[in-house]
XRE family transcriptional regulator
Amino acid sequence: MSLRERVARNLRRLRQEKSISQEELAHRAQINRNYVGMVEREEYSISVDKLEKLADALGVDPAEFFRSEA
Amino acid sequence: MSLRERVARNLRRLRQEKSISQEELAHRAQINRNYVGMVEREEYSISVDKLEKLADALGVDPAEFFRSEA
């Protein structure tokens, strides 16, 4: 699994666990609303600064985005 | 600690554990040699694709870059 795919799956899972839409998450993270969908579709190589904003908005540690599934 | 700082510290630690210079790591990862130093100095918000290349070149899981220190 590519790292983009790993991040995409974790982001979608964490977002859905909080029952937040892509648009709402982007709003809370103060990033462009297109980024969340693009990351979840593996269309965009997101950088550390935006990952930090997303983690803050989700209330999780950024390391959660990089967890490999069992 | 910002996420840039966390990644910077982990990258430097992992690189030094392997006794590889910034230049050698960049060469092995096939990324521009400036990136490694910029990331270690927290001057650059590195993206997932380049982190994957660096992890492969270091022989570590990308999650290692996001470990928070004890």
About this structure: The two ends of chain A are 13 Å apart (CA to CA). The domain at 3-59 of chain A is CATH 1.10.260.40 (434 Repressor (Amino-terminal Domain)). Chain A has a mean pLDDT of 96. Chain A has one domain: 3-59.
